[in-house]
Amino acid sequence: MNKEQQVEEKNNNGHNHKDGCCDHEHKHDPIQNVAAEFTEQHFPIIWDEHKTKLKELSKKELAEQMFFSGTAMILNAVQQDHKAMMEQQKEDQSTTEIKEK
After folding, report:
1. Residue 39 scores a pLDDT above 50
2. Which domain holds residue 31?
3. What spatial distance separates the first Cα and last Cα of the chain, rounded to whole Å?
């Protein structure tokens, strides 16, 4: 298998690296596609704001910080979705009770 075939196989199995590790596309399921799009949109902003401090961290500390940040963002999104769903259920219940009267 030549280098071009290896790259094509890798592209079909997951990651499509455009320029090294930082600029990549994911060809997986919709969740990974959304995560890749979110990363491409927001990582440059985070990097610009915090790169000096991040460069001072060890690789392990950086990995832990990035993992923590990702986890916090996911949990926040889940909490917001749950809150919106509960508010919608209350609204639906109120509407149903009004119609029954």
Report:
1. yes
2. 1-56
3. 73
